[in-house]
UniProtKB/TrEMBL annotation:
Species per Swiss-Prot/TrEMBL record: Clostridium algidicarnis DSM 15099
UniProt keyword list: Repeat
GO biological process, alphabetically ordered: regulation of DNA-templated transcription
PRD domain segment(s): 70-174, 175-281
GO molecular function: RNA binding
Protein name (Swiss-Prot/TrEMBL): BglG family transcriptional antiterminator
Signal peptide coordinates: none
Amino acid sequence: MGRKMYKVLRPFNHNVVLCTKDNKECILIGKGIGFGIKSGDSIINVNNIEKEFFLVDNYNREKFQNLSNIVDENIIGITEEAIASISKKLHKELNEKIHITLPDHIGFALKRLESGIEIKNVLLHEIKFLYKGEFEAAQEVWETINNGLNVNLPEDEIGFIAMHIHASINNQDVSKSSIDTSIISDMITFIEENINIDLNKESLEYCRMLTHLRFALERSRNKINIKNILIESIKENYKETYDLASKLADMVYKDYNVKFPEGEIGYLTIHIQNILSSKNT
């Protein structure tokens, strides 16, 4: 990495240090780089630095400073180690907001745990399927937090952490990523209630439908209208199922202001019909 000098602002643990370099704040991660140092020291030997994150945005830098004053430094330190691991595992650069949102979330999760308050993640299965890479990375973060801080965060937290990772990769707010998962969950509930079937969430048909719903939402938001050359045949051969898919689309438009075009409704009809057919075989 060459010979650089970092001025220490504060160490968070033995492996994570907040520094300045060329008047820019950065977070350094590396084995033992924080051992025995204090604010005002310089880090000249960079051989042990494995990752550096710069906080470029003034707002994010201020938020991180405020967060570091209210969240235990051990939580910030181990979360920053986890963020470096996420970036390495997924081979992706993460939006710098994750340095605020993830330690903030972990801090609150640990407070809830201490108070005996448990929040169930009703979308855990959907998140695990829709965001496989993020979920696997989140599982490692969850294990790192539990082992490193000697706590026992519930498995539901893996899903919440995965949404933070997904949002960071896609430069979204966590609320935006979470709302998509909520829409999909509401759609699944609507289908189950209207066909009077508890869907087998391990089935191939269910997994295919989840995938379609995820990308259908993206296409609809981006005004991408895919052509469905079989639409008239679908309407004719699967009239009841098409009517159900149309009602589902109306619900999504009414509740979330996302409008599915006719072609998407046709493909959704096929997915629902496949589930119905699999139940009859």
